[in-house]
Write a structure and sequence with these properties.
10% strand
Length: 618
């Protein structure tokens, strides 16, 4: 982390902002934290305060009735406080059970809200990874805001209760005698100064150890990355490769190269030196101060300043002042150290959305009369000097079937990303019914597209909810979409039909689906949305030839009156399309029907066609 010292104002400002974020995501978390820590801090002092009169009454041989009244009062109050504390602690623990997932949700919400160009960038991915590595290693960042706040409240409660119960100790006079100096204001000041110095020293030593630990952040993050990468490499989805190629040998080799958390690591060496001493020293200082407190209180009681029974109250109270003050110093220092990590969280959360969201309403046309035109469109990915697309000009009419073909890296997927306005063109414009798509409301413009990307995702949720992308949906419509996508036979075998869970993460009876079956579900999801434009990126890549032929044979039924755009490497899928756009080097080099393009023997399409046809034609 940065060595630049952070101002006190900035430290508190960042910590308070962290508290506000947690309060926004869970309105019960901070109240439960505050009340549970306050009651946990007060309860021990209440027991000490109430038990002192009982001991004094016993020492003075008071009447049994008086002692029993004091005992009943003590039992009643301490039982009530203990019950309230237990209930509040349970409440707080229940809220804290999900705080790790809330922290993930905070990051996920930001990721979902930001412009796709940022969400898709390496810079933003690195920022999110850094935040998660800080969290996984030491909880630094937003998680630590809760931990520090919890300990601060406990330290404040302990300090204030200790001061309230011990103040009279320093004011009580001592009868004349050899120990009368114990009642001197000067002696009280000296004792308080000693305790303050000890608390400060203890806190500084703990702070030194804390900063030394946090200075290990870069090495610890790297070590976590190594262990995470190789532990993930041995997961279930790689089990076949690991067993066949004995890949555990290479992962073990590289894990042995990293000694971040071993006994021979640089940090372990520091722990055996002054850092280890700094960690142990506060315990020694605490024992020394406790001994001094016991000696002072007992001598003052022996000298007659107060009954011997009150000694327990005063010992607990003064010790509380010392431990509370020491903890305050430690936690304030921890707050300062965590502020540097919070800066990384807030830099990520404060990333602005620069994409213009538009203001025009996207017309919901019953006739689906939409026309799209690319006019002189060129595009560079952020941070790149190379054009991914260059001077693209194309238009397609409503209800048409357009195939987009070309070699890998020719610009096909980039073309779709611009069409769907995941990115804006670097040059030129894309028009919907003659109007630049940047002028339409972004959310409404996205509603006119259904897309099946190559790297689509299905959730470990019921089949019907995956198709509808919603917990409430039209079951008949979902079944119809699955039927059109060629999933009817598999649906009939599902044990609970549309209510069958996919995968087993959330349901032990969940079913595993093959890559081809998953692709059919993704196509059904695109159909369920019923958008005017349907875009299929390699829609049959995971299907066997029979299933592929089935999809193609019913293509017009699947697309209906929608405008369909196909990205495909298999040129056989282009024959049933109205038009074909051939991409090469980021440009459209040919446009036309299958027959027209094949007639140009020197064209790129014919070259690609013949390269594939040689495997099927003798």
């Amino acid at each position: 982390m940065s060595k630049k010292r952070i101002s006190v104002k900035t430290v508190f400002s960042r910590h308070l902002r962290g508290i506000r974020i947690w309060q926004k995501y869970d309105s019960q978390l901070l109240p439960s934290l505050l009340l549970s820590r306050l009651f946990s801090g007060v309860t021990p002092f209440a027991a000490d305060w109430l038990s002192a009169p009982i001991l004094n009454a016993l020492a003075a041989h008071a009447e049994a009735a008086q002692v029993w009244r004091l005992v009943a009062l003590t039992l009643g109050v301490t039982a009530a406080l203990a019950g309230a504390t237990a209930a509040l602690n349970r409440w707080h623990e229940a809220r804290m059970d999900g705080y790790w997932y809330i922290n993930e949700k905070i990051l996920a919400d930001k990721h979902a809200d930001m412009d796709f160009a940022d969400a898709d960038s390496q810079r933003v991915a690195d920022m999110a990874a850094q935040i998660r590595q800080n969290t996984n290693w030491s909880g630094c960042g937003l998680l630590r805001v809760l931990q520090i706040t919890q300990r601060l409240i406990g330290a404040f409660a302990t300090t204030l209760c200790g001061l309230a119960l011990s103040l009279r100790l320093f004011l009580l006079p001592v009868p004349e005698g050899s120990l009368s100096f114990l009642g001197s204001p000067l002696f009280a000041l000296l004792l308080l100064a000693f305790m303050a110095a000890a608390a400060f020293a203890s806190g500084r030593l703990a702070n030194y150890a804390e900063n030394a630990w946090l200075s290990f952040a870069a090495d610890a993050r790297f070590g976590n990355r190594v262990y995470s990468a190789y532990s993930w490499s041995s997961g279930e989805r790689r089990d076949l490769d690991i067993r066949i190629y004995r890949q555990e040998r290479i992962t073990q080799h590289y894990m042995r190269q990293d000694n971040t958390f071993s006994e021979s690591s640089p940090f372990a060496a520091r722990m055996r030196g002054k850092l280890g001493l700094a960690l142990a020293a506060p315990q020694g200082i605490g024992a020394l101060v406790s001994g001094a407190i016991y000696l002072f209180v007992c001598l003052k009681a022996w000298a007659g300043a107060f009954p011997i029974g009150s000694a327990t109250q005063y010992i607990g109270a003064v010790t509380g002042v010392f431990t509370g003050a020491s903890a305050l110093i430690v936690e304030l220092a921890a707050m300062r150290a965590n502020a540097a990590f919070l800066a990384e969280n807030f830099e990520y959360l404060d990333l602005p959305n620069s994409m213009y969201q538009g203001s025009l309403t996207t017309e919901k046309r019953a006739d689906r009369n939409y026309t799209v035109e690319f006019r002189g469109v060129s595009f560079k990915y952020p941070g790149s000097e190379a054009y991914a697309l260059r001077d693209v000009n194309i238009s397609f009419r409503v209800g048409s079937r357009l195939a987009v073909v070309g070699m890998n890296g020719s610009g096909k997927t980039t073309f779709i990303k611009l069409l769907c306005r995941l990115y804006d063109p670097t040059e030129g414009e894309i028009l919907l019914n003659g109007i630049d798509i940047r002028k339409y409301r972004y959310d409404e413009y996205m509603d006119i597209f259904s897309i099946v990307f190559q790297d689509f995702s299905l959730f470990a949720l019921p089949l019907g909810e995956n198709v509808a992308a919603s917990a409430q949906y039209d079951r008949a419509r979902a079944e119809d979409c699955l039927q059109k996508a060629g999933f009817a036979e598999r649906l009939a075998d599902m044990p609970a039909g549309l209510d069958t869970y996919l995968y087993k993460e959330l349901d032990k009876d969940g079913v595993e689906v093959s890559g081809g079956e998953a692709q059919k579900i993704a196509i059904a999801r695109a159909l369920y949305k019923d958008a005017p434009f349907i875009v299929l990126d390699e829609p049959t890549a995971a299907l066997d030839p029979i299933a592929e032929a089935e999809i193609y044979s019913r293509f017009n039924e699947i697309a209906g009156d929608k405008t369909a755009i196909y990205i495909s490497h298999r040129l056989s899928s282009c024959k049933f399309c109205d038009g074909i756009a051939v991409f090469d080097g980021g440009k459209i080099v040919q446009q036309g029907s299958h027959e027209e393009l094949l007639a140009d023997a020197d064209g790129k399409y014919a070259e690609l066609w013949m390269a594939q046809a040689q495997y099927y034609v003798k």
